[in-house]
Design goal:
The protein is built from 6 helices and 5 strands, in the order E-H-E-H-H-E-H-E-H-H-E. It has helices at residues 18-32, 47-57, 59-91, 109-120, 134-140, 143-150, and strands at 7-11, 35-42, 101-106, 124-128, 154-158. The protein is elongated.
Length: 166
Amino acid sequence: MSIQIKNILVAKDMSKESSNVIRYALSLGAKFHAQVHVLHVMPTVDPSVLNMVALTMGADKLAKLNAQNEAELAGKTREQLQKIIQDEAELVNEELVHPPKIEVHHGDPAPMILKVADRLDVDLIVLGSHSKGKLHYAFLGSVAEKILRKTHRAVTILPPHVGEEK
């Protein structure tokens, strides 16, 4: 059995540790000559908060303001991701055949990652984990755990600080 990886999806939050996750995905992309897709999912505002603000501000004004803010935040996030990708690509020893592609979406992270993975038909999803403790996972679960339970794709989960200089 030969492993072929043509498309890699790396889901990135904006934590400092997740730069290592991008470097790891870029290294895999270089080794397999695969296309790397970097995804950041921006959380949405809780609907109950939106309803309260809509009552005060007006639904039309809120919708317009929300759309402007989402577009502005997505643009700034794309710029930040582009800078991180450039910095991390310089640390990868091999040359990337395909420049990484960036996507920024709003929504619930796990379902959005799965949706994008299906749309792009990726061969591998790369995620970082956050050691937040047992109690956090017992009650809330994690994005990585939700993805592992619901996907049929290969998933690589990197613990914090993987690839850092010691």
